Amino acid sequence: MTLRVAQARYKDWDRCDLTYVELDAGTAVAGVTTQSLCPSPEVEWCRDAIPLGSARALVVNAGNANAFTGHRGRAAVEAIAAKVANHLGCLPSDVLVSSTGVIGVPLPIDKAEAGLEAAFVAEPCGWEAAATTIGTTDTYAKGAHASAMIGDTRVNLVGIIKGSGMIAPDMATMLGYIFTDAAIDPALLQQMLSAANKRTFSCITVDSDTSTSDTVLAFATGKAGNAPMTSMDDAGADAFHAALSDICRQLAHLVVRDGEGATKFVEISVEGAVSDESAHRIGLSIANSPLVKTALAGEDANWGRVVMAIGKAGEPADRDRLSIRFGATQVATGGLAVEGYDEAPVAAHLKGQDIEIGVDLGLGEGRATVWTCDLTHGYIAINADYRS
Amino acid sequence: MTLRVAQARYKDWDRCDLTYVELDAGTAVAGVTTQSLCPSPEVEWCRDAIPLGSARALVVNAGNANAFTGHRGRAAVEAIAAKVANHLGCLPSDVLVSSTGVIGVPLPIDKAEAGLEAAFVAEPCGWEAAATTIGTTDTYAKGAHASAMIGDTRVNLVGIIKGSGMIAPDMATMLGYIFTDAAIDPALLQQMLSAANKRTFSCITVDSDTSTSDTVLAFATGKAGNAPMTSMDDAGADAFHAALSDICRQLAHLVVRDGEGATKFVEISVEGAVSDESAHRIGLSIANSPLVKTALAGEDANWGRVVMAIGKAGEPADRDRLSIRFGATQVATGGLAVEGYDEAPVAAHLKGQDIEIGVDLGLGEGRATVWTCDLTHGYIAINADYRS
């Protein structure tokens, strides 16, 4: 496989904004896309292509999301897929396409086609150039690496991602791509990616908003030469699944750390819920609470706001069994503040960049961990002062 | 009925913070309370007392929410009710109690009792003094008035409310009280209040957060001398219901207008949804979206963010049937931006203080209206810099 970038000039800027990845014949693909009911035509295209299981190319456009553009947006995606299919001699459905940027403006087909022609003849580039080119409001290029042993064969995974709000529809959509040389059946890859997504990308939130374009795709070229994996019972499947989950977690955390205006990375662990799903919903209720997030920005051990966020989650909770900790320090237990708890380690913990909040509901065995960032003046500045 | 205020000194401040309302014998009561599953003991007390249907007094404490305080918080509520019941010769369950302020600190019983003793002998005061005394972070006292004809008898309704975040658990809980001289059966009053609540208080949001203490109570003394209303079919019941809904809407809007950091009052009207409930959920998804709210703060006609918020609501929506307007100007229709729409009236509308967003889903007859405010640096300043 080879990576190339080019200038399609989707905006009036002097940077590469089209990423083109050629994949080896026989590459398997899996993917997860936004839950939005108003998705972009790129998302609709990927939703149709992913189940076919094979891919030969990926095209990512930055600067124009092509969302809410009706049939003209769809035509742009079809034109891109057709042009790449013609170039490679593959099916259009073997070409995966993503776009990120402003909404409501159809992606200009002439710019996309000229950009592709430039990309076809460009020198191959490295991961960092690709990670930079898919980015928009990102403040740094985001990549991660993992590996696993399958029998005697080491397989590698490399991932790149963009996103800084979770997820602003204009310029901060989350687009993630994972590439591996492992040989794996696409159905199994999909099963593993869906499971990993549930514990990683689905557990991060910057501002509770959901993009019309969020997409994570995994490509497996099979070039490592391992015995192809087709079921979770195959040798090495557990190790590969763990590596895939690991790289997804790394990429998800990078997005949160680059959250718009973020100054803190916050891990919220919920246990003692009636189920894992219930714990997940309670965790997200805390992570999405503007009052909790502003308290964290203010380095304030305001556990009352955590109680509030638990109470509004609509999940089973018993006020008088609740325990809450900041870092390693229990601040409330059994429905009461811990009298005379030592405030010094809590204050020190909250002054750091990595914050942990622990909640024990005391009801059952359900648990979940979610990640978010604080809500600061920086978020307001980025989003109130951004012009559509 | 008489209103009195006193200084219980729940905080180290020099203002009245205890409101005491004596109600005539035979006063009917109805109420709605927070959906929170971690409510304050005051909310639990009111939930038990409201169904009994009668009330003789209301006590509101400002400066201490008494929430998440276990059995000691409960004991404080019981002590207040017992003291007032002893003073008036009524049942403790005839005494409704609310508290608002910091969480996690049991309400000091000695201060409450001393405050009540001062209130019992204080000069009666007017509505504005009561509205001021129940307030915390509110920037102004909030009251409203309505009236209705029941047969030949004019009945009056007066309401006071506090709240500025919707609803910060620390100091910005929403507490609303409506007083009328109408004669009405408590079950009918409850039916009308619940219906009005659904269209008013349940349709406002400042920051999506829900207090552990939110409470709205309605008291009807019966002193107007109208023929008592016991069913919606009774003469004047429609007029009274309309007046009650009107005063609830006025009070709800006052809370939004005083939203923490708010500079804009935003009305979001959704029509064409598959049901009223679906329209309501879509409206709240838009109203709670940080990206929509920051765009409004920036006076930016960013309808892409409205599409995003509709898409994430999880309700039936078809991108290609969506229409969106700002003020009277259609900016998107049938899944596309309206080409060449006149930006001048949109820009002028967004510069105003009262903003209207209209969404037509084009699917059915469901409709709902919700109200919110913008999300500004002021909100961050109030909540990140507030110390618990």
Write the layout of secondary structure elements.
The structure is a homodimer of 388-residue chains.
Chain A (H helix, E strand, L loop, with lengths): L1 E5 L11 E16 L7 H9 L4 E11 L5 H19 L6 E8 L6 H12 L6 H7 L8 E9 L2 E10 L12 E6 L5 H14 L4 E2 L9 E6 L16 H21 L7 E9 L2 H12 L2 H8 L5 H9 L11 E4 L2 E5 L2 E2 L5 H9 L2 E7 L5 E8 L3 H8 L4
Parallel strand pairs in A: 3-4, 7-9, 8-15, 10-14
Antiparallel strand pairs in A: 1-2, 2-3, 2-9, 5-6, 6-7, 10-15, 11-12, 11-14, 12-13
The Rg value of chain A, from CA coordinates, equals 22 Å
Distance between the termini of chain A: 36 Å
As a percent range, the share of strand residues of chain A is 25-35%
- The average pLDDT of chain A is 92
How would the global form of chain A be characterised? globular
Unreliable parts of chain A: 166-171
CATH architectural designation of the largest domain in chain A: 4-Layer Sandwich
- Got a strand count of chain A? 15
Number of domains of chain A: 2
Helix and strand composition category of chain A? alpha+beta
The CATH superfamily of the largest domain in chain A is L-amino peptidase D-ALA esterase/amidase
SSE order of chain A, one letter for each helix or strand = EEHEHEHHEEEHEEHEHHHEEEHEEH
For the report, how would you describe the main beta sheet of chain A?
Answer: 8 strands, mixed
Q: What is the count of DSSP helices of chain A, taking H or I runs of 4+ residues?
A: 11
Q: State the share of residues found in helices of chain A, binned by percent.
A: 25-40%
Oligomeric grouping of the chains:
homodimer
User: The CATH topology of the largest domain in chain A is what?
Assistant: L-amino peptidase D-ALA esterase/amidase
CATH level 1 name of the largest domain in chain A: Alpha Beta
